[in-house]
Amino acid sequence: MIDGRHRGRIILAAYLLFCIIYLGAPRLAISNLGAFGVKQFTAIIPPACAAILAIGAIREAAVVRNKQVAVGEICSLTLSADHRIVDGIAAAKFLERMQAHLDSL
Fold it and tell me: For the segment 20-63, what is each residue's pLDDT rounded down to a tens digit?
């Protein structure tokens, strides 16, 4: 569940987490078509980058909180990674950390 007020923090957290994992490695690009209402998409990795994080629109949906259904805010995050540079397990761990951080907000 993501509050719309945290949109900028999401982008910053994604970049910082990636830098922590891959300090000194090629950069992470971020594509935020969610700002234009796109719910989910897959972004193309730009040259000189190891990966790109696609951020979808924040929207209301039914979520489970404390074993009860409630209205919450969600968004999709899609990570595209160049497997010549980034191991798939590392990319999965990055998304796992990202989700844990966002769930704690």
Answer: 566 555 578 889 999 899 999 999 998 888 899 999 999 999 98
- The predicted-structure confidence for 85-94, as pLDDT tens digits, reads as follows 888 898 898 8
- Is 83 among the residues known to form the active site? yes
The CATH number given to whatever domain includes residue 39 is: 3.30.559.10
Half-sphere exposure of 94 (CA within 13 A, CB side): 26
| Structural domain for 26, as ranges | 4-103
Taking every pair of C-alpha atoms in the chain, what is the biggest distance, in angstroms? 45
pTM higher than 0.70: yes
Total structural domains within the chain:
1
Which is catalytic among the residues 5, 39, 65, 83?
Answer: 83
